Amino acid sequence: MPNPNMGLLPDYISPKKYDITIEPDLNQFVFSGNISIDIQILKETDTIILNSSELNINSCQLSSKHGKVFIPKSISEEKKSESVFFKFENKIPIGDYILFISYTGTLNDKLRGFYRSQYKDSSGKTKHLATTQFEPTDARKAIPCWDEPKFKSNFKLRLIIPTHLQAISNMPILSTTPIGEKKIIEFAETPIMSTYLLAFIIGELSCIERMTPDGTLMRIWTTKDKESLGTFALDVSCNLLKYFNEYFSIPYPLPKLDHIAIPDFAAGAMENWGAITYRENALLVDPNKSSSMTKQNVASIISHEMAHMWFGDLVTMNWWNDLWLNESFASWMGDKAVDNLFPDWEVWNQFITYDTHEAFNLDGLENSHPIEQEVNNPGEIGQLFDAISYSKGASLLRMIESFIGTEIFRKGISSYLMKNSFGNATTKDLWIALSEASGKPISQIMDSWTNQTGYPWINANIELKPDEEINIEVKQQQFLFSNIVEEKTNMNQIWHIPLNIQTPLSSQETRTSFDKKHASITIEQNIKAIDPSHNWVKINPLQTGFFRVNYNDDNWESLSFAISQKLLPPADRVGLQNDAFALSKSGLIPITNFLDICLAYTNETNAIVWQDLCANLKSIGHQLSNTTNTKSLQKFIVSLLDSIKPTINWTPSSSDKHLDMILRTTVLNTLGDNGDSNTISKAKEIFKEYCTSGKIIDPNIKSTVYSLVAKAGDQEIFDKLWNLQKDSELEEERVRILRSMTCFTDKLLLQQLLEKSLSDEIRYHNTIGIVVGIGNNPSGEELAWEFLKNNWIEFNRRYGDGGFSLMRLVGTPANFKSVEHLKDVESFYNSNPTPSANRSINQTIENIKINIAWMNKNSQDIGEWLNNRVKS
What we know:
Shape: globular
Strand order of the largest sheet: 5-4-8-2-1-11-14-13
Number of helices: 26
Helix content: 40-55%
Oligomer: single chain
Structural class: alpha+beta
Distance between the termini: 61 Å
Number of strands: 29
């Protein structure tokens, strides 16, 4: 729970209703506001404290319900706690009051609070809109308020704006009143909700809309002339609403749901209740120019945000230490809904890569954090928005659902939502609901997963006994990548692990669990009925458990055979190679074991399996870049794709399915990245035809073409790509080209791109992608780091308050692998303290240490292995 000594608000005063009037000036980038707050004082006090940041308080008065007026004798602000103190002459008695405050503020350019966004309309004229981003603690930058999630209130909003502009907020418009060249727009009162969910957007906006069968008005808002790009989002949103209403057995409680595309936006999207805001490329789809992956991303982001309408908005965590109750449920539930709409996308197989493995990578660091993490100030809160709160939690929900059953789980979370509707909840409340639904001690099982950092790896020794039994000895220990730096012993963490086991002869899984260091499991079956070399044991089938598994050599060999013959489903083929890769990266098994397992995938055809495997091989390639092993590794990677390469066409077919397009992109990217001359030549040919004759490039291969052309490109190619993104009206295309441009190998060209990244030609939210992208390029990692250091003052001005952008930015040097670079990174961050990203900095330094140890341990072994298998 929050620490009362860390600037958190006292709980003896609570708001009940806000009545807000705001007038923004989109020419001078300022705004004025008047706010009346119905408050309840539960203890006599002479001081009223609430949150306020970067606002100028002009006046304040407190009125009792009986008309008595109290004027504060002093008004003071405390920047550290982002609070304002109204001190009165005498103590205010217990009772109900109205607190009135008049204030002004600035429409900032930092993409948080109440801020301005700039764009060009279809005629090329520069325009501005004003919008909000309040999560986690920036409502206080627009209104003085009790800016903590437990202080739920109703909100009544009026906006005074020029007559030619439109305004959107959480609720529908009640009335519009002209006043000269302006108008007052009054919105209906919101349900009770937390301050961070309040939103208002003002600008030259237009929408497409549809009334859903249950009577909810669904709208997609854009800047003018982009309305048609919202059709896909509108279709998906209406279908998702039907699914969520039925799944939760709780109808969406607001009369309308708006989705608004914002030109400048820090995160992917924000779940403001009834008025969800997005980056343009997270909401808008051009049917002729958008890739299949963009459609998937848009559907997934919309689904995530709409799931928040229940998890986060209807029921809100009591304090930010339970952020995972919002984000994990939205991640898990969002994927569940998308899987229902698009079953051929194999969402749950992709979940393993994009969520479980993403969480594994972060939670395998010593500088990770528990899901339930104590936080006491805004800087600490911002650092919780990471793969632990989103993806680890979502993976644990998937594990619980698998453990207790799909329908029981649904009933449990529906009960949780019903009991806590329009209120706040804690992790304990969730466990109670799931325990009541399942009859199982969920808290006893799950506390070990949410209260401690990390996750286990299981070492399994499989023994095939002659008396027709399989005996399995399992041992659990915390998984840490830093084991390769220094071997970890005497670790005492224990997890309560739901354990499922599959064998080739069992029609059903063996289900058990263990919560001790060691356990013995016996499976009775006729093992004589199968070739002993092919009698494998697979622990954690379909990768539903949040742990890694290592096996004895014989079982790895049998599993490799099963992989090569596709006797295991794609989820297991994804998981096995990823476990082997991670185990080798941490020094728990030899790196050559992973490379041996890769040989079992030469006949693989599944897009998701290839996507994950190629990412792991790319990681090794980055480690070995500019070494004597580089060329041999590239040849090996290309050879793995020999069987599938002839089946991959650059030209799309009408019979192509979603995963076919992902497979094409993955294979072509990997071939090109590893020097396949035919692939590179074809990419250059396609780009040349596009530039000279305007021949259309299939959207699904654009990123591949642009990236491969850039990789071998010169100044002429740089200028062509730059002008293409500059002239594009589609944000998706601009981002696609900018990402591709980070692949140049010419250092002068990469430096040019870095310099442009801080210019007015690049949106603030795209700057980070350029710097981090170049930092991920072996040819540019030092350039990106030097650029970050040399421009630290500007980066700190823009992003230093914390959040997604800062956490990504400070990780720019994470790929370094020398002691000299490690010392430089440590020295710089010691000299430039960044409290809002301390954990991310520590993770970056830890990753560099892991890279150094990995190189020392593995370079020679990989070289010898490649020399024995790759022709020169």
